[in-house]
Input
Amino acid sequence: MITLPEAFTQALRAAQRVAVLTGAGISAESGVPTFREAQTGLWAQYDPQQLATPEAFQANPKLVWDWYAWRRKLVRAVEPNLGHHALVSLEQRLPHLTLITQNVDGLHRRAGSRNILELHGDLFATRCFKENTPVEPVDDNSETPPRCARCGSWLRPGVVWFGESLPAAELHQAEAAAARCELFLSIGTSSLVYPAAELPFLALRSGATVVEINPQPTPLSQHAHFVLQGAAGEILPALLSQAFPDEPT
Ligand code: BJW
Output
């Protein structure tokens, strides 16, 4: 049984505005590999950081498209876990919670979270590589990579690659939520990728209490007010039952 610091559960109960930033670690217990952990099977020989760039796609569109098609298949076969579900319950109990996610797997949406900002796009969305316009998702069994029906260019996954801008409206809302919140939770992210990694620091500068949930230390750890070392799927349900002991989970 995990016992969380009373000062933290009290801060959570009292908070009017909470911002939550999640990364790949929250989906790990669903069976989705994190971004920086070694890949398995066919993809073990590739470094995700080398595949998730426009340059990699331009150099080898089939390779990069197939990697995303493989990940879509993997994500379709898994379910949201206790960590995702605990965040849904937290949203229902708190006056205002903004869920900012770097994940492209859609598991927060599938769990039932409502106020979500997806900073790095959506694994299941498709865009024209040349015109950057959204198009209808294509069948993963069709020829790869597919072509844009309008201009004939390659289609690409609707995610944000290294060197690309994040969706402006989502980033703006995430920064506003980080600057305004009293409590900021950073969950399951290595805190390495910017501008998302800047958000807890923005919250710190604005006077918020910052809490990290992660089995491993990150560059944020030494700055956070509370570091809860462990798996999100264990800590988040404990947080819920200890902060709101009289409410059904
Ligand atoms: C658990 C767990 C459990 C395990 N429970 N936890 C400032 C300084 C330096 C560089 C830059 C900067 N500003 C911009 C940059 C460049 C770049 C960047 O940040 N590079 C860094 C690598 C240094 N950023 C960009 O290019 C961004 N664009 C941009 O800023 O545009 C303007 C600009 C461009 C160029 C220069 C300057 C300005 C775009 C970033 C897009 C990131 N996209 C990706 C791919 C998405 C599509 C896909 O999935 O394929 O997003 S990269 C990848 O990293 C993915 C993730 O969302 C993101 C974050 O990873 P995350 O979620 O933290 O996962 P992991 O695997 O790293 O960590 C998992 C964690 O979980 C670990 O800590 C585990 O311990 C933990 N864990 N089990 C809880 N059960």
Remarks:
- The two ends are 16 Å apart (CA to CA).
- The chain has a mean pLDDT of 95.
- The beta strands are 17-22, 96-101, 116-118, 121-128, 134-135, 155-159, 183-187, 209-213, 226-228.
- The chain has ten helices and nine strands.
